[in-house]
Amino acid sequence: MSVGDVSKRILLGRKLRSSQLGETLLPKRIALPVFASDALSSVAYAPDEVFIMLAVAGASTYVWSWKIGLAVALVMLTVVASYRQTVHAYPSGGGDYEVATVNLGRNAGVTVASALLVDYVLTVAVSISSAAQYAAGAIPFLIGHEATVGILAVVLLTAMNLRGVRESGSFFAVPTYLFMVAILGMCAYGLLRLLAGDLPDAESADLVIRPQEGWDGPLTQVGLMFLLARAFSSGCAALTGVEAISNGVPAFRKPKSRNAATTLLLLGMIAISMMMSVIVLAKQMAIRYVDPHELDRLRTASGAVPDGYVQHPVISQIAAGVFDHFSPGFYFVVTVTGVILVLAANTAFNGFPVLGSILAQDGLAPRSLGSRGDRLAYSNGIVFLAAMSILLIWIFDAETTKLIQLYIVGVFVSFNLSQLGMIRHWSRHLRTERDPAVRRRMMRSRAINAFGLGMTAVVLVIVLITKFLAGAWITILAMGFFFLVMQAIGRHYARVELELAADEQDKVMPTRVHAIVLASKLHKPTLRALAFARATRPNVLEAIYVSVDAKATSRLLEEWDDRHLDIPLKVLHSPYREVVRPIVEYTQEIRRASPRGVVAVYIPEYVVGRWWEQLLHNQTALRLKGRLLFTPGVMVISVPYQLRSSQLAQERGRRDETRVHAGDLRRGRVTSRGPSRTVDDA
């Protein structure tokens, strides 16, 4: 086993057989943290964005915060109810993409796929960037290095997910449940203190927020509505990740649809409880929170805030106040919040590769995205998602406020098309269904999806109006780019499939085979290639040599005559010392002379055992093959000749395979009599 194989086993674990796929399926207790961590973690930044948007007009507008929270909760409940219908109707894991493709057509499906791909990348970038901000708030020396911290976190998540869905889910389950306990416990204790009348104010309660320019006067009704719409659209970031369960139904244990629907319901109830509790406590503790780039709008009683003032996130301020006499409680909440923001990206790491594999099967993405790795995970999709997320984190310097403006546009595009597709689905089935009980159930499901479409359509319009100039246009461009790329890939695969379709002409034998053996010297590789070419019994067999040096050419001709080889040697003169071009032109001439014939070019190649030896050999052969592969009617045959270094490397590999490893006796690979006698041999 090579050093690379050993390193791979240490990082990823042992390979899994395809028959072990069932062992990677998730029970509900593991599926909840795997697929719900994104939606749950939005509690760490969605309330912050609501207060940032409301702070545009000053702290007086914070009275609307809990009402905006209720509106977001209503949309979330609607979306959860709608997706419960989806997982029952389409349990194959296609989710929104499958619903839109089947019911609305291919273009709608590609639109949904492009929206989801962009949303998954942004999910990782936003979650990791927010976690980096929390880490910098807790560890001062990380300030200014948030992007580096975020990139390292993405690399760690990638390595964990490459180990497989079940392994990563088990690893992430404990932190996710600890986050639920921390936030719900903090909020419950805070609400108890509120009822008891001893809930302290937040650390920022004494600050005054100066409204932005243009918002410092009395708000008109139109201005207030626009402000509330902006806050509502930012709060709807809490809905991202809900769709991941519909894409991940195949990862659940049986009964898959029922388990996925139950997990969806649990997700919705827990996320709503946490978000509303945080918003209510933040309002009651008089938190003052503005855009991190506009800290100059904060004022103390004596003037501007001091230099170096650090604005802690909303949850940090709540925890500091609620646990003012119990510092371990504060550190526990802040720590698990930072951890869950990193792990929230795991939802995308589970949804993106599955969607990519489905797109690959449908010919809309590279086939490599549909291949499972050693641990039965879609490794190529995981690596691609990580690379795109790292690029975004680096470009936006891990600033959540900038990235959040790109967020949720894509997911609400998919929400709308999915709901419309489900309405078409139920309407189509109602035309043929005659059972009254089944019809009532279908009509109820259609009503739920219709209400969901209305809600998500309103949110999409609000998001586009309020966030377009703030950065949503970048998301729309990215979606358009993915749409065009997938359509181009689909056309390419369709064109290739049409070209490769077998017909009667493929049975026609070539009229003649003209075999050419390349001879650079008269040595063992050349003689082996000549022998192999002769064994194939071509119609014409000749060796060719490109002459760039008269003395070397004369010497080769003499050796050829001395050996009395009965195969003619043709010399191609190259006045400009080119080797590849004369051979290519010669094969093209033969092909033109016999259009129905085949030219077989035999190329002797050295097989070496060390990577650096490859740099010293076979370079001309590689260039020649690269040119000849584009020449119609020309077949390129490599004739390998194993040098001693390759044989030594092979022997070392055999010794590694026969060596006794730990656990071999227990697994029955060797007997107690020694490593040379296996169970099969005995």
UniProtKB/TrEMBL annotation:
What is the membrane topology noted in the UniProt record heading this document?
A: Multi-pass membrane protein
**Keywords from the UniProt entry:** Membrane, Transmembrane, Transmembrane helix
Q: Does the keyword ATP-binding apply?
A: no
Q: Where do transmembrane segments lie in this chain?
A: 63-83, 104-128, 134-159, 171-192, 222-242, 263-282, 330-355, 376-396, 402-426, 447-465, 471-490
Bias-annotated ranges (Basic and acidic residues): 651-667
Kindly list the places in or outside the cell where this protein is found, as annotated in its UniProt entry: Membrane
Q: Name one GO cellular component term.
A: membrane
Residues of the signal peptide: none
Instruction: Write down a Pfam family by its short name.
Output: AA_permease_2
Give an example GO molecular function: transmembrane transporter activity
Region listing for Disordered, in residue ranges? 648-682
Looking up InterPro entries in the UniProt record yields: AA/rel_permease1 (IPR002293), APC_K+_Transporter (IPR053153)
Does the record's keyword annotation contain Transmembrane helix? yes
Q: What is this protein called?
A: Amino acid transporter
**Organism field:** Nocardioides cavernae
